[in-house]
Design a protein that fits this description.
4-stranded antiparallel beta sheet, Beta-lactamase, Peptidoglycan synthesis regulatory factor (PBP3), Domain 2, alpha+beta, 5-stranded antiparallel beta sheet, 17 strands, 393 residues, globular, single chain
Length: 393
C-alpha cells in the first residue's frame, strides 16, 4: 500500500480534531442538563424537601434516630397553635410561671431562657415569642403546663400528635428539648412536622421569621442566623445540646417554591448554617415546583347509573404540585383513571378514581379523584332502566 503524503496526513489529522471539537461543543438540549450530587455538608444527618409536593431532593441518614434538642419546640408550637385555632387558648390569656418552669428554664439552669420571673403572669403571645425567637425553655414549659395540666400530661399530647402526623420514628420525653434516652426523632419526621405547621397555621408561622423581641427590658435575638444571611429564609428553629450538637430546621421561599432543610448534629453553629444554606441553594438551583391541578376544579363529568342525576362532577380534594429537575416541565403529563361504572348513591368527596401525574415514563404523583357533590339514588323505574343499560356496558 502506498503511504499517504505528509500534507494529506496533516490535513486528515486537522479534520479529525475539528470533528472532535465540533462534537464536544454541541449544545445540551433542555431537560438533559447534568444533575450534580447534593453538597457535602458536616452533619450526622440531613434532609431537603419541597414543601408543596413533598418530594425529597437530598438526604443522608434521614431515618436514623437522633436528638432534636430545642427543635423539639416545633411540636410544642404545633400543639399551641392547635389550641389557638380551636379557641381553647387566646393570645391575651395570661399563664403563671411555675417554680418548675422557672428553675428548669431559667438562667440558672444554663439553658435557653426568656428570663421569666417566678410566679409572674405572662401573656400567651409573649410566651410563644419567647419559645420561638429566644428558644426559652421557661416559656415553653409554661405553655406546656397550661395546655397539659403538667409537663408530663403535655408530653403525652406531643407523642399522640406525632403519631397522627405520621412521625413514626419520634418520641418525646419533655416539651423543650432536654436530652433523654427516649427523646428522639429523625430528619424525615421533622420535615413532616415543619410542613404541617406551614400548611395548617400560616397565620402563626410568621413568628418564626422574627429576628428579635424584648421582654422585661431584655432584648432577645433569634438564634437562626440564616434569617440575617438570606432574605428568602423565614424560619424555622434551631437546637443545641452537647450530645445533640448543633441542629437547624430552615425554611425558605423563592418565587412560588418553598423548600425545607433539616440538618442534625453539626459540629458548630457555622457548620449548621452553611450546610443548611448549601442544601437550600442546591434545591432552588437545580429543581422547580410545577402546579399541576387545583383542588375543587372540575376535571371530568362522568356518567352515573341509577342516580337522580345522570352525571357527577369529579376533581381532587387537594392541590397537586410536582418537583422536577429544571427544564423538564415539557415531559409532564396527566392521566385520569375512573372506577367505572359509577353507581348512585354517591356522597360528596367519595373516591371514584385516581389522577396520575407522569414525567416521561415515571409516575411522580398520584391523587384520588373525588366527587365534588352528592348524587342521590334514583327511584324504582330510573334504577330499573339503568340496570338494563348496564347490561350493554
Amino acid at each position: 500500500m502506498t503511504p499517504l503524503p505528509l500534507a494529506l496526513k496533516s490535513l486528515t489529522a486537522r479534520l479529525f480534531l475539528a470533528a472532535l471539537v465540533s462534537l464536544a461543543t454541541l449544545p445540551v438540549t433542555a431537560g438533559q442538563e447534568p444533575m450534580p450530587k447534593p453538597p457535602a455538608i458536616s452533619a450526622n444527618g440531613y434532609l431537603l424537601v419541597d414543601n408543596d409536593s413533598g418530594r425529597i431532593l437530598a438526604e443522608q441518614k434521614s431515618d436514623e434516630r437522633m436528638e432534636p434538642a430545642s427543635i423539639t419546640k416545633l411540636m410544642t408550637g404545633y400543639i399551641v397553635f392547635k389550641a389557638l385555632d380551636e379557641k381553647r387558648l387566646s393570645l391575651t390569656d395570661t399563664v403563671p410561671v411555675s417554680e418548675y418552669a422557672w428553675r428548669t428554664g431559667g438562667s440558672a439552669s444554663g439553658g435557653s431562657t426568656t428570663f421569666l420571673e417566678l410566679n409572674s403572669q405572662v401573656p400567651v403571645e409573649v410566651l410563644i415569642k419567647g419559645m420561638i425567637i429566644q428558644s426559652g425553655n421557661d416559656a415553653t414549659i409554661a405553655l406546656a403546663e397550661k395546655l397539659g395540666g403538667s409537663e408530663d400530661g403535655f408530653v403525652q399530647m406531643m407523642n399522640e400528635y406525632a403519631k397522627r402526623l405520621g412521625m413514626t420514628n419520634t418520641h418525646f420525653e419533655n416539651s423543650w428539648g432536654g436530652p433523654g434516652a427516649e427523646h428522639y426523632t429523625t430528619a424525615r419526621d421533622l420535615s413532616v412536622l415543619a410542613r404541617a405547621i406551614i400548611r395548617e397555621f400560616p397565620e402563626y408561622y410568621k413568628w418564626y421569621s422574627e429576628r428579635e423581641f424584648t421582654w422585661n427590658g431584655i432584648r432577645q435575638a433569634n438564634r437562626n442566623g440564616l434569617l440575617a444571611r438570606d432574605s428568602s429564609v423565614d424560619g424555622m428553629k434551631t437546637g443545641h445540646t452537647d450530645s445533640a450538637k448543633y441542629c437547624l430546621v430552615s425554611s425558605a421561599k423563592r418565587g412560588d417554591m418553598r423548600l425545607i432543610a433539616v440538618v442534625l448534629g453539626s459540629p458548630t453553629v457555622k457548620a449548621r448554617e452553611e450546610g443548611s444554606a448549601a442544601l437550600l441553594n442546591y434545591g432552588f438551583t437545580f429543581f422547580e415546583t410545577v402546579p399541576m391541578q387545583t383542588a375543587g376544579k372540575v376535571l371530568l363529568t362522568p356518567r352515573v347509573f341509577k342516580g337522580a342525576e345522570n352525571s357527577v362532577q369529579v376533581g381532587i380534594a387537594h392541590d397537586i404540585s410536582v418537583t422536577i429537575p429544571r427544564g423538564q416541565g415539557a415531559s409532564l403529563g396527566k392521566e385520569t383513571v375512573l372506577n367505572m361504572p359509577l353507581l348512585a348513591p354517591l356522597t360528596a368527596g367519595q373516591s371514584v378514581g385516581e389522577l396520575i401525574v407522569t414525567s416521561g415514563d415515571a409516575v411522580v404523583a398520584r391523587e384520588p379523584l373525588v366527587t365534588l357533590g352528592p348524587v342521590e339514588e334514583a327511584g324504582f323505574f330510573g334504577s330499573l332502566y339503568d340496570s338494563v343499560l348496564l347490561w350493554f356496558e
